[in-house]
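Re-run with default settings, no changes from the original entry. Doing this only to confirm the output is reproducible before filing.
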Amino acid sequence: LQAISSTYPNVKIIQKALGAVVEKKEIFITNRITSSSLLRPLESEKIDSALMKDAATASGSEIVHVSTLNKELKDMQGDIVLKIDVQGFELNVLKGASEVLDRVLLAVVEVSNHEVYEDSPAYHDIDAFMRNSGFILLDMSLSFREKSVLREWDVIYFKKEKLQLLD
């Protein structure tokens, strides 16, 4: 990542997790690394997705530094575009962005319709938060469907007060 990003002067690599508050927190490493989360995976038999049962099984953990978007983006100028895909921790990340959400023009947030992690928000929790923060749902993009059931998708929000930019 460092080597690739070195050709882009505006890219800054920050090796931290994001959440609602600055803290140290346990991250749960899973069998499929992309399913690792700051939320504890449910016990395998409680996961309601056959495809996620093995992928989200915890195989270890470590302590990571958690920061907030407020802290990491406080000096950023201009409009901000966010892409948040943090395995059930999306609402926590958004809550740590209260001071910068006014500068967010577009936000792409992964949401889910299945239970994999303890205390993960439902898609309607994230939708309510974004709408209450002045965003409008612009579009959706399917990520994962299992046996005809929509399991994960990206929701694309646009700052409501800036909709004229889309015309």
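The longest strand covers residues 135-146. The mean pLDDT is 92.
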